[in-house]
UniProtKB/TrEMBL annotation:
PROSITE patterns: ZF_FLZ (PS51795)
Pfam families associated with the record: zf-FLZ
ZnF (FLZ-type) ranges: 9-53
Keyword Zinc-finger in annotation: yes
Stretches assigned to the FLZ-type domain: 9-53
Protein source organism: Hevea brasiliensis (Para rubber tree)
Acetylation recorded as keyword: no
Name the UniProt record assigns to this protein: FLZ-type domain-containing protein
Source organism superkingdom: Eukaryota
Family: Belongs to the FLZ family.
Positions of the UniProt region annotated as Disordered: 58-89
Spans traversing the lipid bilayer: none
InterPro entries per record: FLZ1/2/3, Zf-FLZ_dom
Length: 89
């Protein structure tokens, strides 16, 4: 919210560079309601989102691999396990 209590409309400025969007100029949209002043700004945001998505995917796949590895190490360690039947009265 701004100083004067006026919340800016989402189409007033470019999402990336914050350049004001003119009344009679093209607005390049991305992901439904994200405005950009040019194709270049929009493409830069798309590239950043894709990079972030790939980085998160790599992190999640590598962490799940290390988790599976640690689980395998736990099951293969020398632990004594008792099996049998327990009767409860």
């Amino acid at each position: 919210m701004s100083y004067y209590g006026h919340e800016p409309h989402f189409l007033e400025a470019c999402f990336l560079c914050r350049k004001p969007l003119g009344c009679n100029t093209d607005i390049f949209m991305y992901r439904g309601n994200t405005p950009f002043c040019s194709k270049e700004c929009r493409q830069e945001q798309i590239d950043m989102d894709e990079c972030r998505k790939k980085k998160n995917w790599k992190l999640s796949s590598s962490s799940s691999r290390s988790l599976r590895k640690s689980e395998a190490e736990e099951t293969s360690s020398n632990k004594t396990v008792r099996t049998g039947t327990v009767a409860v009265a």
